[in-house]
Amino acid sequence: MERIIKLIKILRNKKTLISRVALKKARDYLVVSRVALKEARDYFVNEKKDEARRLILNGLDNNWDLRILWTELIAMIEDKTDYELIRNTWIKAPLSISNDLLIGNAVARAAAITGHIDESRVLLRHLIILANEISSFSSQFSSSKENQTINNFTRDRDFSNKAAEALKDLYKESVDMPKPFLISGTLLGLIREGKFIGWDKDIDVGIFCNREKSYEILKEFRKSKFFVVRKVDISSDRIRLHHINGTMIDVFPHYKDKNDSKVWHDGSATRWWNSPFSIKETEFIGEKVWIPSNPELYLDENYGNWRIPVEIFDARLDAPNVEVTDQEYLTTLHYFSLLSAIKKSQTEKINRYSRLLLDIEKDDWFLQFQR
């Protein structure tokens, strides 16, 4: 018996040593990858794009699980031909990577924004099935409603604090650029509630800018010490910024039509119009910000009856002023919405998008996700 106990202790010590070695190795990889990431971003800003991508690929060769390197590689997409590199890297990666929801989502988005719609949807179906299995398993251990309320309160407070910091830095970085002004859900939160609306977890701003100038603004943001540019798509002028504290800001260039009768801003597969407007200064969450001079009219055109809260609102489907610019891409975005809803166990959204895709695709495959 004493020998057995001694052997168990030895084995436990060995496992602990192995775990420590593995942890140190993982930390070393992370440090090396962060250095490579910074160097790669510097290369990319200075138009040395091949060198930037090579550094990212070398980092992935050492550790395929580093999600930040995958998202960075995809953020470097400039045109449709860049997808071949993403595809080849994905194929080369270990099979286990295909079951990583975050990496898979990033690769599917890379396929979608470069026009490889069929490949994107095939991958999304795989991810939707996987997310559904994980969600079904996790639901057996879900927290109580009371704990969820406490968690939501803490998350909302943390987001508001971080968002205030991100807004302050956005205005610092925009001194020599068009003045950003609050729009969409962020403006709605300010006007209706005096704070961010409960389910809004990013910041939406607009800028007055013609299409030609938007790329120059994107390049300026790539030099920022506060923000990292993330690729949304290559067919619109929208700029997605990730603040160093984790807050995400979507910047929508606003431009007039030929007759100066409407102001438009583009999304992915859709665009929205508003009556021409100017902007004014106000205060929001302790920061000086800019908003449309007639915010109520702006919200009327974007939401209709915005004074009554509607939690399940999709600007691509429900906005009174929306115009579809690419129906195939929009359908693919519904796949992403279904995947997101399943990961978050949002029953009403799961039912909405699975039913919508069933009607569009005429495919009973979507019936299995109805709740």
Relevant terms:
Beta Polymerase, domain 2, 10 strands, 371 residues
Q: What features would you describe in this structure?
A:
By secondary structure, this protein is α+β, with helices and mostly antiparallel strands. It has a domain at 161-325: Beta Polymerase, domain 2. The chain is 56% helix and 13% strand. The chain is built from 13 helices and 10 strands. Strands 1, 2, 3, 4, 5, 6, 7 and 10 form an 8-stranded mixed beta sheet that branches. Strands 8-9 form a two-stranded antiparallel sheet. Helix 5 packs antiparallel against helix 6.
Secondary-structure topology with pairs:
Layout: H1 2-45, H2 49-62, H3 67-75, H4 83-92, H5 101-113, H6 117-138, H7 145-173, E1 181-182, H8 184-193, E2 203-208, H9 211-222, E3 227-230, E4 239-243, E5 248-256, E6 263-266, E7 270-274, E8 279-284, E9 287-292, H10 295-303, H11 315-318, E10 322-324, H12 327-343, H13 347-361
Parallel strand pairs: 2-5
Antiparallel strand pairs: 1-2, 3-4, 4-5, 5-6, 6-7, 7-10, 8-9
Helix pairs in contact: 1-2, 2-3, 3-5, 5-6, 6-12, 8-10, 12-13
